[in-house]
UniProtKB/TrEMBL annotation:
It comes from the Bacteria. It comes from Piscinibacter gummiphilus. This is LysR family transcriptional regulator. CDD domains: PBP2_LTTR_substrate. The lineage of its organism: Bacteria, Pseudomonadati, Pseudomonadota, Betaproteobacteria, Burkholderiales. It holds the Pfam family LysR_substrate. Gene3D superfamilies: Periplasmic binding protein-like II, Winged helix-like DNA-binding domain superfamily/Winged helix DNA-binding domain. SUPFAM superfamilies: Periplasmic binding protein-like II, Winged helix' DNA-binding domain.
Length: 298
C-alpha cells in the first residue's frame, strides 16, 4: 500500500467516480481503475459501491478513509516544510473555498497576503462545504473557507464573519424595493436556488429551504441552478427570486441590475468558517493568508 494508491483512492472518493478522479490527477481512466483495483486486491475487499452513476465508500473504504487522509496530509506537510526551508519564501499555499465565497473580499485578502509575502504562490480552488473540509483534512489544501462549522475530527474551525441573506428580484418585479410582512407571502413565486438533494449539494442550500419549511411550506416552485452568477443573471432577467448573501449582490444592487425585496420576518445570516487541520504544518505564507482572512470584513 503506497502513497500513490492512497491518493488515487482519495481522489475517487472526493470526486465520486473514476472519470472525475482521472481529471483531477491528470491520469487516464484505465490507470485510475487499475490502481484502485490493485489497492482493493491488497486490502482484500471492495472500497466503493456503485450508487446510480457515482461511487460511494463501502464499509471497508470508510474504515480506510481517515488513515489515507492522514498519510496524504503528512506527505503534504513534508513537501511544504521542505519547500519553505529550501526557498526561504512563503511557498505555495493551497486555498479551497465555497464558490460563493470567492468574492472581492477574498481576492483583497489574498492580495494583501501576497504583498506581505513576496514570492508567495497562491492556488485557489472552489468546492462545496463538505469538499472544503475533506481537502483540508487530507492535506490537499492548507486553508479552507466554508459555511458552518464542521464537527468532524481533525479540523480547527473559526467563524470569521456571517453572511446576511436577502431576497433579490428583478428591478422590474412588482415588489422590487417594497416590503412584505412574511416570507410565506412569497411562497407562490418561482425561486432559484442551489441544488439541495444532490451529492455535491452545498450546506447553504439547506438553509435557504429551511426558511420555508420552518413556516410550514414544504412545496415550492423552484429551479436548481448550481451557479451564483447564473442565479443572479436569471433573477435580473425576471425568471424568479433568490435568497442570496448580501455581499454577493452588492455590485448588482449598486448598478440597479437587481433589487432587494424586504421581508419582515426574515433575519437570517449564515456563518463563514475558516478551516485548518489540527496539528498541520503552516508555512509563513499560509500564516500570512490566515491573518488576512481573519481580519474583520468591512
Amino acid at each position: 500500500m503506497d502513497s500513490e494508491a492512497l491518493a488515487t483512492f482519495l481522489a475517487v472518493h472526493r470526486r465520486g467516480g473514476v472519470s472525475a478522479a482521472a481529471d483531477e490527477l491528470a491520469r487516464t481512466q484505465s490507470a485510475i481503475s487499475r490502481r484502485l483495483a490493485l489497492l482493493e486486491q491488497e486490502v482484500g475487499a471492495p472500497l466503493f459501491e456503485r450508487i446510480g452513476r457515482g461511487l460511494v465508500l463501502s464499509e471497508v473504504g470508510a474504515a480506510l478513509l481517515p488513515y489515507a487522509e492522514r498519510v496524504a496530509a503528512a506527505i503534504g506537510d513534508a513537501q511544504a516544510a521542505a519547500e519553505a526551508a529550501r526557498t526561504g519564501a512563503g511557498g505555495t499555499v493551497q486555498v479551497v473555498t465555497v464558490g460563493t465565497l470567492a468574492n472581492a473580499a477574498l481576492a483583497s485578502a489574498l492580495q494583501r497576503a501576497r504583498a506581505r509575502q513576496p514570492g508567495l504562490d497562491l492556488r485557489l480552488q472552489t468546492a462545496t462545504s463538505a469538499e472544503v473540509s475533506a481537502q483540508v483534512r487530507s492535506g490537499a489544501a492548507s486553508i479552507g473557507l466554508r459555511y458552518f462549522d464542521d464537527a468532524g475530527a481533525g479540523l480547527e474551525c473559526r467563524t470569521v464573519h456571517t453572511e446576511r441573506l436577502v431576497v433579490v428580484c428583478s428591478p422590474s418585479h412588482p415588489l422590487a424595493g417594497k416590503r412584505v410582512k412574511t416570507l410565506s407571502q412569497l411562497a407562490g413565486e418561482r425561486w432559484l436556488a442551489f441544488p439541495a438533494p444532490e451529492r455535491r449539494s452545498e450546506a447553504f442550500a439547506t438553509t435557504v429551504f429551511a426558511q420555508f419549511t420552518t413556516r410550514g411550506i414544504d412545496r415550492l416552485d423552484w429551479i436548481a441552478i448550481d451557479s451564483l452568477t447564473a442565479q443572479k443573471r436569471l433573477v435580473q432577467a425576471g425568471f424568479g427570486l433568490a435568497l442570496l448573501q448580501a455581499s454577493a449582490v452588492d455590485e448588482e444592487l449598486a448598478k440597479r441590475e437587481l433589487a432587494v425585496l424586504k421581508v419582515g420576518d426574515l433575519d437570517v445570516a449564515v456563518p463563514v468558517v475558516l478551516v485548518t487541520r489540527q496539528g498541520g504544518y503552516l508555512s509563513g505564507g499560509a500564516k500570512a493568508v490566515l491573518r488576512e482572512l481573519m481580519r474583520p470584513v468591512r
